[in-house]
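re: that complex we talked abt at group meeting.

here r the seqs, copy pasted straight from the sheet so there may be weird spacing, ignore it
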Amino acid sequence: MNTPSQTVGPYYTIGLSRRPQNELAELNDPAATRLIGHLLDGQDDPIADGMIEAWDPAGGRWGRSGTDAEGRFSFVLTKPEALPDEAPRLDLYVFARGLLRHQLTRVYFPGEAANETDPVLSGLDEGDRATLVATEDGGALRFDIRMQGGTVFFAH
Amino acid sequence: MTAVESPIVLPDDPDFGPEVQMDYPGYRSTRLRVPKRPLVTLPEEFHALDGPVFGDDAIGELDSDLTRQHDGGPLGERIIVTGRLLDEDGRGIPNSLIEIWQANAGGRYKHEVDQHPAPLDPNFSGAGRCLTDSDGRWQFVTIKPGAYPWGNHENAWRPQHIHFSVFGRLFTERLVTQMYFPGDPLLELDPIAHAVRDPKSRELMIASFDIETTQPEWALAYKWDIVLGRGGAGTTPLENA
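got the structure back, here u go
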């Protein structure tokens, strides 16, 4: 039998964000961009004690960002490579007080032709698909996560 | 054993499955945070994805000894916590990152949000990390964390616990959990532990006292093996929420 999951609780920063770990690319890489988003609860209020991990399935990169008082997280990244027959994406694990196990969502990239044929993305209806694609926002990418407000989460 | 009448701790339910109940009603913080829609199933390939690899450079020399990270020793009962990291076939997982964090002996976290009126310990930060060895073994030296009150319900106290963050090898093996101590009377009253409804599964979060590893004149030892599943089964049936 497997060891069950428990929440990270409100004090995870002691152990899990000893130093900044949110750079999947070098800041001075000309191709690097910032992915910024807000983690929001069922009343659209910010989740200020959450943590997002970004996992790059094609490139082996990994990063972690806490959320601030506005629920904001951010990563520095370059667009990931795509797995065969899939669109470029990062898997995002959401951790927070109140989440007894971490939850999985994905961020896809805007304007990618492969988004139309990606086996996961294309299997969703239009409204759900839109919750998983980042939007351009003044040179950065914007991606909000609404725990109870539409964002698609995956079994894992 | 279980306080059956309490809305905080529901009766055991082995039929629920071995995993944690995401929307366990006794844990108040779940209400506005747990996704309410059914989770979408991913193609089988997802379960074979390899996760990140962390090297020795992620680990400092004193990272696994929480009693030697400051000029003096911390107050409290010194303990050794050790075990193996295993996959679901019982094989040790080598070179895998384990991170821990915990309250001090008085039950206070070194965190600005924690306002529990117990003293901070200038000699205790409460964070550690290590890599498993070639057999999947890991070990920390620390102090036994204190129990502490929390606002979930009237007179709510968390049992003594150490938070663990574990990577394993695969995307789906990622695990964050809490290790509890044997014989803690608060365990039977704790909604976070009881969100695991199967008592046998819940026991897997409780370390055992280990006289063999206990070091004479120095420190008690607790043993706890961590078993990582590959996911895909036993996820909470959210559609019943």
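couple things i noticed - Helices of chain A lie at 13-16, 126-130. Chain A touches chain B through 52 residues (CB under 8 Å).
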